[in-house]
Amino acid sequence: MGKQAAKRALPDNEAKAVLRMVRISPQKLNLVAQLIRGKKVETALADLTFSRKRIAGQVKKTLESAIANAENNHDLDVDDLIVSEAFVGKSIVMKRFSPRARGRVGQIQKPFSHLTIVVRQVEAEAAKA
Fold first, then answer.
1. Residue 115: Cβ-neighbour burial (10 angstroms; 0-12, 13-18, 19+)
2. In the 8-state DSSP scheme, what is residue 8?
3. Which of 17, 38, 92, 108 has its CA 20 to 30 A from that of 45?
4. What family does this belong to (predicted)?
């Protein structure tokens, strides 16, 4: 007798991918997440491809993973997917110290973040509107 399978947290028309422990501040990562929120996945991928932000490549990789999860695990149509949620969470902050003048110390904070992307399948008529 094994454990019973956990119920699925998301509805049947959604799939998600999570990027954990990425070395960037949540504020900077949220700027890129705002760029793709609510868009169709083709548009979001194009925006991330030509974005000049350093983190855009990893966000694009996570979005592609969410699309692959939707297609392979949940049998959703890739052409009807939109980015329903893209949210950023805080993770750990590494603290480092740097010597300053007159024997003092300056603290350097190196923040980490989490990114969660949820894609949802919408009907073709609703996607055009």
1. buried
2. P
3. 92
4. Belongs to the universal ribosomal protein uL22 family.
State the residue for tokens 């297609």.
Answer: 71
Q: Name 108's Cβ contacts closer than 8 Å, sequence gap at least 6.
A: 95, 96, 97, 98
106 contacts 121 by C-beta, under 8 angstroms: no
Instruction: Evaluate whether 63 touches 17 at the Cβ level (below 8 Å).
Output: yes
- Looking at the domain 14-121, which fold is it? Ribosomal Protein L22; Chain A (3.90.470)
Interval 99-125: pLDDT, tens: 999 999 999 999 999 999 999 999 876
Mean pLDDT lowest among 11-20, 62-71, 102-111, 118-127? 118-127
How many other CB atoms are there within 10 angstroms of residue 83's CB atom? Answer: 23
Q: What is the pLDDT of residues 38-57, one digit of tens each?
A: 999 999 999 999 999 999 99
